[in-house]
Amino acid sequence: MKNILFILAGLLSMTFISCEQNDLLLSEKKLNEKIQKTWKVLYANSNDSREKWTFSNGEVLLNYDKDYPSLDTTINYTFIGNYSIDARFSKAYVKLSGFSFPDSLQYTNSAFTDEDLNRAWTIVMLDGDVLYLSATDNRGAIRSLEFVKD
Fold it and tell me: Which of the 8 DSSP states describes residue 127?
């Protein structure tokens, strides 16, 4: 019986060690330490990101510049929300809450409303200078955010 337990423990250890992305075993504290920095949103069609997110002590600051060509001006918007980390055995989440945009408009350059943002986002990747989040919105569409360290 003892030998079977050693064999099972060895197999489980090898399984976890062989995983390329070992984020599954990170604690909420470790994930929180890794996410606390300023991140620049990447866009599929451009490298000119004008949207930055700063995670710090349970608060997330969303800051971006929006161009208004008809007014020949750029306005800087800043919104504050909250975040928490929920680490489970198989997945980790960043839960965003508290974002409130006037008239539920798309106030981010990445075209998200406050309703889109205020949810649990799966941490797909949090590795050094890259953060990738994914979530399913209320209409069933998969939404994602890709960041690089600013």
Answer: E
